[in-house]
Amino acid sequence: MRDGDLVHWDWSLEVPMMRGVSFAAAEYDVEVARVAADRSWETPERAAGRRVLTGMDREKRLFYGLRPSWVANDYRDQELFRVALQIDDDYQVFVDTPWRGRRPEELAGEVCTTLALPPSAWHATWHTIIPTLTQPPKIAGPSWRPSRF
């Protein structure tokens, strides 16, 4: 909790000590900014994922009823980067992009460029969340295919 020039930490679940602690707010803010800017721990997959999630046009995706669900390398093929989007509680949509030896920022740029296109232009796969649905989503394009698990 911030209180003027101090930030107070109190424990509610896991209690590492029997008292709260306080920090000078200005020093606390500098340290939080330093930690937030440190990307040295990121793997290429996580760096690409961060760039995609922060770089995609979410408003455009929402226009089509899509919201990002997760991003990661495909567990079956580490050379494919996968973006999973969800349409309501009905469908999952997957857009895969090959790494091809590229740096995370290059891959993320291509993914964001693809996601900026209308979904009907994507090469995507889809999966129904509701078992009674058998048709592709209404936004599916001609190159969309059912996902195989």
SS elements, strand count: 8
User: How much of the polypeptide forms β-strand, as a percent range?
Assistant: 25-35%
The ordered string of helix (H) and strand (E) elements is EEEHHHEEEHEE
Helix/strand class: alpha+beta
| Major beta-sheet overview | 5 strands, mixed
What global shape is seen?
elongated
Oligomer: single chain
Number of helical segments?
A: 4
Cα end-to-end separation: 46 Å
How confident is the prediction overall: mean pLDDT? Answer: 94
Helix percent band:
25-40%
Low-confidence runs of at least 5 consecutive residues = none
Rg is 21 Å
Number of domains: 2
Order of strands across the biggest sheet? Answer: 4-5-6-7-8
Q: How is this structure best summarized?
A:
The chain is an alpha+beta fold and 149 residues long.
Report on this model:
- There is one protein chain.
- With 149 residues, the protein is α+β, with helices and mostly antiparallel strands.
- The chain folds into two domains: 36 residues, no CATH class; 103 residues, no CATH class.
- The strands form two sheets. It has a five-stranded mixed sheet with strand order 4-5-6-7-8.
Give keywords.
4 helices; 2 domains; 149 residues; alpha+beta; single chain; five-stranded mixed beta sheet
Topology:
Blueprint: E1 2-3, E2 6-9, E3 21-24, H1 25-37, H2 44-55, H3 58-63, E4 66-74, E5 77-87, E6 91-98, H4 104-116, E7 124-128, E8 145-146
Parallel strand pairs: 7-8
Antiparallel strand pairs: 1-2, 2-3, 4-5, 5-6, 6-7
Helix pairs in contact: 2-4
